[in-house]
What we know:
- By secondary structure, the protein is of the alpha/beta class.
- It has helices spanning about 1-30, 60-70, 85-95, 110-115, 140-145, 175-180, 185-195, 200-205, 235-245, 260, 265-275, and strands at about 45-50, 75, 100-105, 125-130, 160, 170, 200, 220-225, 245-250.
- It is built from eleven helices and nine strands.
- Strands 2-1-3-4-8-9 form a six-stranded parallel beta sheet, with helices on both faces. Strands 5-6-7 form a three-stranded antiparallel beta sheet.
- The longest helix is centred in the N-terminal third of the chain and has 27 residues, at about 1-30.
- The relative contact order is 0.15.
Amino acid sequence: MDSMNRRSQTLRRLTLAALASLVVTAGTGAAPGTAAHTAGQQEMPTIVLVHGAFADSSSWDPVVDQLTGDGYRVVAIANPLRGVKNDTDYTAAVLKVIPGPIVLVGHSYGGMVITGAAVNNQNVKSLVYVAGFAPDKSDSAATLSAKFPGSTLPQTLASPVPLPDGGKDLSIKQESFPEQFAADVPEDEAKLMAVAQRPVTEAGLMDKFEAQPAWKSKPSWFIYGTLDKNIPAQTNEFMAQRAGAKETVAVDGASHVVMISHPDEVATLINKAAA
């Protein structure tokens, strides 16, 4: 009888251990014996994408397709475009609820935002600037884009829209948008982008960056188009060198929306930053 009781207790302990293992596995989304379940394997980061002015989260769609196909969890933040501090604070709040390591990616004005939002978040392991501003203290999007000749954005802006708080909303004239913003995107697609563009406040482009830049403490990667008419190629190269970029990719002939026209190159660079 004692022998039977011992066998029964042993079987019960093994069953409970098996159930516990299944619970742990379900919590992690990994099956026993898979690579993700193996102790000591590096956790795949979440890729967080922050769009810029005159765009929205759909501008990342071609890149998202590739990143999710590579097995990453991807979050494309809806950047409010209401001003550097406002947008930085909002993005930082979103980052706080994302568990595990993060690769933070910013396009254009979104670069201003990620440079501040990543500062106090230890989960952000690397930064990727996609034709993005990488400001230092006292820089603004406007001063950086004018640092070297070549930006034709100011003359393509539509009449400002007065806001109730005294500010102004800026957008690009629809007829100017394809050539200015997306010259290497099929014309029909560029025209749709022009209609759906989201305005940015004038303050967003003029606000000085006042935080400690995250690129001073976190590794960075840069990619941009050589025919960018919003941020001149020389400005992109300057910012990459100043940040001590791990790698800088200049896509020959690409426009400001290099993530739409050349998603392969952008996704490849994000993968390097994630590694």
